[in-house]
Amino acid sequence: MLTGKNVVLAVSGSIAAYKMANVASALKKLNCKVTVLMTENATNFIHPITFETLTGNKCLIDTFDRSFQYNVEHVSLAKETDLVLIAPASANVIGKLANGIADDMLTTTVMACDCKKLIAPAMNTHMFNNPIVQDNLKKLQHYGYEVIEPDTGYLACGDTGAGKLPSEEVLLNHIMKEIACEKDLTGRKILITAGPTIEKIDPVRFISNHSTGKMGYALAKVCMLRGAHVTLVTGKTALTPPPFVHVVPITSAEDMFQTVTSLADQQDIIIKAAAVADYRPAIVATEKMKKKEDEMSISLERTRDILGYLGEHRKEGQFLCGFSMETEHMLENSKKKLEKKHIDMIVANNLKEKGAGFGTDTNIVTLITKDQAAQLPIMDKEQVASAIMDSILAQM
Question: Catalytic residue at 223?
Answer without folding.
Answer: no
